[in-house]
Amino acid sequence: MENILQEIKEVPAVMGSYIHVNGITAVTSDLPKIFQNKVYEVGTVIDRIIKVNESTKMHAANIEFKYDEAVILVRPIDRDASLITFCETDVNRKKLHMTTGMLANELKDAAAALRKGKVSASAAETQEPEPAPESPVKQEVDINKILHVGPLASVFQDFQNAFAMAIGPIGEMIMKDTVKEWAKKGECSEARLNELVEMLCREIDDKSLEVEFREAVSEHLT
Asked: What's the CA gap between 103 and 20, in Å, rounded?
C-alpha cells in the first residue's frame, strides 16, 4: 500500500493521501502529522456524502472539497472505501485523476487487504484517538486575539511566515492549532517561545526544513 501512496504523492502539490475503509480505524497514511488524528473522521463524513449521491442515483467518479489553504479530492474505490487525497490549491487535477485512475485495480486490492487485515506491519498506522479525560477546569483560549492583537502578534507573524515556507500553504492552519495547544499549557510569553518552536518543529517532520525554520525565527528566541 505504501507504494500506491508514494506514487500518488509524486504528483506535484499533493500533500498526502490515505485509503478510507468504513469501519476500519487503523489508517495507513503519508499525510503530515497535523492530519493524523482526523483522517478517520474525515473519511466517515465522506462516506455519508457518497451514500447521499447513491440514494439520488448520482455516481460521482471524483468528489472535491475546496478550502482557502487546501483541496481534498475523493475517489470512491467501492461502496465502503475511498481514496482521500489532500492537495495544495494549485494541484494539477487532470494529472492526479489520471494517476489514480491507472491505480484503480491496485486501490481495490488495497481496500480488500485492509478488510482482511493484511496491511504490512511496517505501515504507519494511527488509531482513532480515545477521548481525552476532561480536566477539572477548562482554560478558554482566544486564539485570534493571541495571534493578532496580543503582545507577541508581530512575533507570531514572523513565525507563521517562516513556518509556511517550511511546510507550504497549510502552515497557517497548523500554526493556529499549535499555538492554541501551546497557550493552554501556560502564559503566552517570550520565555516560552522556545517551547513553541519545538512543538512546530515536530509538525515539520523534515530535518533540513526544520533547520531553516529554526534559523528564520532565531532572533526571537532567548
From this structure: 15
Interstrand relation of 63-66 and 71-78 (parallel, antiparallel or unpaired): antiparallel
User: Which residue from 49, 46, 16, 51 is spatially nearest to 33, judged by alpha carbons?
Assistant: 16
pLDDT tens-digit readout, 96-140: 999 999 999 999 999 898 888 755 433 444 444 455 555 544 557
| The overall pTM is greater than 0.70 | no
Nearest to 63 by CA among 48, 55, 29: 48
Rounded to whole angstroms, the Cα distance separating 11 from 18 reads: 15
Q: Are 91 and 149 members of one domain?
A: no
Distant-in-sequence, close-in-space partners of 72: CB < 8 Å, separation ≥ 6:
42, 64, 65, 84, 85, 86, 87
Q: What is the largest CA-CA distance in the chain?
A: 61
Tell me if 186 is assigned to some domain.
yes
- Based on the fold, state whether residues 75 and 25 are members of the same structural domain: yes
Please check whether residues 157 and 120 belong to one and the same domain: no
Is residue 133 a part of any domain in this protein? no
